[in-house]
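Q&A log
Question type: sequence-to-structure
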Amino acid sequence: MADKDDRLERLERQLYSRSFQNPDVRERSDLEREAPAAPESWREETDVAELIRRRQEEQEKGRVFKKILIGAVAFFVLSLGVALLVFFGGGNSVSAKNIDIVVAGPSQVAGGETLTLEVSVRNGNAVPLESALLQVEYPAGTRGADDKTAELLRQRLPLGKIPAGGEVRQTIKAVLFGEKDSIKELSFSLEYRIKDSSALFYKDKKHEIAIRSSPLILTADYSKELNSGQLFSITLSLASNSSELLRGVVVEAEYPFGFSFVSADPKGAAGDRIWQIGDLPSGDRRVIRISGRLEGQNEEERTFHFTAGIGSKEDSTKIGPVIVSSLETVRIKRPFIDLSVTLSGDSSVEYVAFGNERIKANIVWTNNLAAQLLDGRVEARLSGAFDRNSVSLSGNGFYRSVDNTVVWDKTSLAEIAAIDPGEKGVVGFTFTPQISFGGGKNPQITLTVTMLGSQVQVNQTPQLVESTVSRVIKIASNAALTVRAVRSLGPFENSGPVPPRADQKTTYTIIWTVSNSLNDIANVKVKAALPPYISWESLTSPSSENIIYDPLSREVLWNVGDVPAGTTLGTKQREVAFQITLEPSLSQVGMTPNLVGESMLSADDRFTGRTVSITRLPLSTRISSDPAFRDGDDVVVR
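Response status: OK
Response body:
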């Protein structure tokens, strides 16, 4: 209290002091101060009552909305319950659970024999099933019981109306194929409708059948171990294990990497991989012998895959349903004598040579034995389209022309009399393909190299050791392109001054000729570009040939197509002619201008798989192939 009195006394002294200044004094303003919009008296009772009334109305609306929401949720729950009751309950409702598809029949069947199944559809609902239809889907390769050549993929069996509590039965028959102990699955699907509904309903069922035995038995007999490059054979035996005739049997072979096919008995229907056995009676047997060479590294394993089945209806050279398959594995052992052959530096199994090519064959041998190899002997035998007079040896050795074999032995090559372990050596010779080979189209040369020797171990008799490798030389097509320009010859009449004059037009005829004697060639095309002072006259002959001129690139293109072997000059050769116009300028006076640029032929050699390319030099106004040409007729004058 004393503190409060002290403050009042201080305030009183300040008020009466001559030096007192009031800090809250404000300067006078010309603007009126805005009075606050505050009420000057308490609200009337009527305003308060209005606020209370509005609040009660808002609360009432909230209670109504809550009642509506609760009612909607209750209605939804009730509807769902009724729907579930109708769906799963009884009455006139239909449930897929009350429909049963029963398949009666054997659980296993012999492949290739007729399978008979009785299918029953039972309707356990209180209402009938309308327009019922049963669809059966069979595994791939199934055949019809009445026609085993026709593939059976699916069946649609109309059942009609199935009454409430009723049952409908259907019998189906089919012939299943497959490997022994394989499982085949059949799919059944029932389609049906109910009265007064457009909806389509389904009931599905799966049924499995085991193949207890295969109608075909496939066995293979062969050496399980062999040396790399060694010639060997696989004997396939195919026997019928079916009580019925098997029609259209096909065998297919899938070879591993490094295998080179040599021959087959009988020959395949499609190359070296497919054999059409045809109809195979019950208990009958067929044999296929396949010969070839397998190359690889030491201890490598290679697997052959053989399959047999019924030929596809769309393509009889392909297997439809596979009945039996076999995987046969061969282990490659390092050969006692390692042989490698290079042809002009190329070590590939197949070598492509041209008719005039001089081929150099190098043979490298290595003794892989742990002991000496005695009395070594190397033989290189040639067969096929080669010139017997062209064989030449680069060193010691002897060409035995009676059987086309080059021989090296200890009498001609002392170093192979005794070959130490790991020792290497090389021999070689050269030869040339024979262009005029009379053996028909697709000429080739086979080079087979064999090295022999004796392996002598302590207290044992000498053992003969042998190693063989082969190489195939395919002769490429000798397609030829002849190009010439003429005026007095050909299918067109030419005009204009000769020799050509500056700023005047002179026409010429260009003739392209394609010939081919050895291999069939495909996609043959010939093209050349025209210089800027040459114009295209749109005249070609014959009209049957497809020749096109592109004014943008100024290129003339002749789509020749396929040219078979034996199409040589004068016999079935392909030829086309077209006319052009030369209009030289003053700058070309005294010159011999070109009429067309380089003529280029491209084609695919169907035998070798290589691309054939031929280029001919440009043709100029010096048309020496025309009998009317004279010296000086080619030079442009004023």
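Response note: The chain has two helices and 40 strands.
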